[in-house]
Amino acid sequence: MLFAHSLAAPSLLALQYWICLVVFVSGPKEQYSRLFRSQTVNQALGSTAAHSARMQYALASTVQRMHQEALPAENERLLKQAWDQAEDQTNLVLGIDDFAIKKGHTYNTGIHDLRGETMLDLLSGRKLDALRAYAEQHPEFSNLNPKAVVMDLAQAFRTWISECFPKAIRIADRFHVHGYVIESVQTVRKSVQSTLSPRAKGILKSHHRLLNPPVDSLPDMSRIQLEQLLAFSPLLREVWEWKESFSCWYEYSPNFDVAQLGFTRWCKQGEEIGHGAVQNALKTMRN
């Protein structure tokens, strides 16, 4: 059956906007043709079900149902495509990262092909037992041959990756590396803050975020405020300078040899501070 209608418009536009909605009845359980279903689903996957419904002059609920029915097969197709791409890469770089489902309680772990810009899989948990179980249950993961793996500095990730890919270069990602150093600065800030007068304590607490970014990125007024914070404590200034040294080392090391020498100097600078938060950060970095 063929249904056609035209939009109310001038004669020229009427020719341009003549729209046909084709609906085939091919059986008692199949209302729409495979071609119509395929075209509608493809539009919905590329945009939204509502947009596809408007384009096809179909009910949004119908398109939504078609979309939901097509998702499992589309997910399987894209997943296979991503894994095939990862397996074929000669310079594969994997990314391993966890994220909170319920912060402080429940975490999942994502596995990414960073060069291919795809997510390969998502597994429940981030503890070593869960990671090892995943590798045992998914031989396709262990069969990958990554040149490098980018991850945070969590011990579970380091152990897991060294077991699965002993030849891969392990790279600590920028966000987490800086996070450990900044966390140390803020821990020292809190300990210093508790020893200050009420007025100084309030100032330091209100502007504590100025301690985090590189000083070069701050506007002039913020630099003046930062200097006021650092004047409250020699220890706070010392830890902040240690943090700044790390940023410079991370940004400007031109090659491996210079980076290795700079890292040794930075560790020595931290050891001389003698604060527990700094020592914990150094321990994590060295591992």
Automatic annotation (TrEMBL):
Highest taxon in the source lineage: Bacteria
- Ranges of residues in domain Transposase IS204/IS1001/IS1096/IS1165 DDE: 94-287
Q: What is this protein called?
A: Transposase IS204/IS1001/IS1096/IS1165 DDE domain-containing protein
Family matches, as InterPro entries: Transpos_ISL3, Transposase_DDE
